[in-house]
């Protein structure tokens, strides 16, 4: 289903930098009401100020901030509660927050694996769980099932309002959630899990008119390659041109408007996807090569 972003109530996690930051800037420019969340309060406040400054003349941005770690259930509930109390509902959830850990799986710990999963898979899944009961009644055919909500959200849900904008959940997976690569095993597993979770959820929620968009970015000019959860070794990839976070955010919002199911906003990612589909043995050999090259570079 096609939808407008004007007056849409949107939650964006991981909004302090990179793709999330660009999503907030672009969505607010077209009149969306947004709740932005990340760990760093000062960056969120700076982003809100920039959004206000860049708004067209005579228009005021609707931006709410919730700072905290999205792996915390309390923070997730606070994000949803803020959107409900400030805007009366949620039309679009964008699960953008995420970070990788690099290194060989055999050299890393179960604790690290859990941290990667908590941020990249568990957090978006559980935030989605909170959102679904609030989106299901948008056509007016059902009442909000408050018993599916935690106590902190039940009062806010009593005054739920609907805009008529078809609801959507946007999950940022990754190109490595389609094809696993060397030195990113835990991250690949988390992003693959988020991708197939989204595909399953799409069929379950079809009856309610709730759409699911899966985004699989590739190499993007963000802090992804420096802000690792942990770095115990990186593959020696060949030099290649990365796309900008602004471009990826624009492609995501375009896909939201058009009601698409999935996108790969990275030209080399599309090639990699096709090669993996038609020539999986070749892709295995490529990954082995770069794994061995990384060992030699140590």
Topology:
Layout lengths: L8 E5 L4 H12 L3 E6 L2 H14 L7 E6 L5 H15 L4 E4 L5 E2 L7 H26 L15 H7 L10 E5 L12 H21 L5 E5 L4 E2 L8 E2 L11 E2 H14 L3 E2 L3 H12 L1 H18 L1
Parallel strand pairs: 1-2, 1-4, 2-3, 4-6, 5-9, 6-7, 7-11, 8-10
Helix pairs in contact: 1-2, 1-7, 3-4, 3-5, 4-6, 8-9
Can you tell me the overall shape? globular
Low-confidence stretches: none
Helix content: 40-55%
Oligomer: single chain
Rg over C-alpha atoms, rounded to the nearest angstrom:
19 Å
- Strand segment count: 11
The largest β sheet comes out as:
7 strands, parallel
Order of adjacent strands in the largest pleated sheet: 3-2-1-4-6-7-11
**N-to-C order of helices and strands:** EHEHEHEEHHEHEEEEHEHH
Which structural class do you get from the secondary structure elements? alpha/beta
Instruction: Indicate the mean pLDDT.
Output: 92
Query: What is the count of DSSP helices, taking H or I runs of 4+ residues?
Result: 9
Distance between the termini: 51 Å
Query: What is the strand content?
Result: 5-15%
Descriptive key words:
298 residues, alpha/beta, seven-stranded parallel β-sheet, two-stranded parallel sheet, 9 helices
Overview of the molecule:
The chain is of the alpha/beta class. The protein is 47% helix and 14% strand. The protein is built from nine helices and eleven strands. The strands form three sheets. It has a seven-stranded parallel sheet with strand order 3-2-1-4-6-7-11, with helices on both faces. α1 links the parallel β1 (9-13) and β2. α8 crosses α9. It is globular and about 60 Å long. The mean pLDDT is 92.
């Amino acid at each position: 289903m096609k939808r407008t972003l004007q007056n849409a109530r949107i939650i964006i996690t991981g909004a302090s930098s990179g793709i999330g930051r660009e999503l907030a800037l672009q969505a607010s420019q077209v009149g969306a009401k947004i709740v932005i969340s990340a760990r760093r309060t000062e960056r969120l406040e700076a982003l809100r100020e920039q959004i206000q400054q860049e708004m067209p003349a005579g228009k005021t941005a609707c931006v709410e901030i919730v700072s905290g770690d999205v792996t915390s259930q309390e923070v997730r509930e606070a994000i949803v509660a803020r959107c409900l109390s400030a805007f009366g509902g949620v039309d679009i959830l964008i699960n953008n927050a995420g970070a990788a850990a690099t290194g060989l799986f055999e050299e890393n710990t179960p604790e690290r694996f859990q941290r990667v999963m908590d941020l990249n898979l568990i957090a978006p899944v559980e935030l989605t769980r909170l959102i679904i009961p609030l989106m299901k009644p948008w056509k007016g055919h059902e009442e909000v099932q408050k018993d599916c909500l935690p106590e902190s959200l039940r009062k806010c849900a009593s005054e739920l309002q609907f805009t008529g904008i078809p609801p959507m959940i946007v999950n940022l997976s990754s190109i490595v959630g389609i094809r696993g690569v060397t030195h990113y095993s835990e991250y690949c597993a988390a992003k693959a899990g988020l991708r197939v979770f989204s595909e399953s959820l799409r069929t379950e929620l079809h009856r309610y008119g709730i759409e699911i968009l899966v985004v699989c970015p590739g190499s993007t000019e963000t802090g992804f390659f420096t802000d690792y959860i942990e770095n115990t070794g990186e593959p020696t990839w060949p030099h290649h041109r990365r796309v900008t976070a602004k471009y990826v955010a624009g492609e995501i919002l375009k896909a939201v408007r058009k009601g698409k199911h999935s996108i790969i906003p990275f030209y080399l990612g599309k090639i990699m996807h096709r090669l993996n589909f038609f020539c999986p043995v070749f892709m295995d050999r490529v990954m082995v090569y770069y794994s061995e090259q990384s060992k030699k570079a140590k």
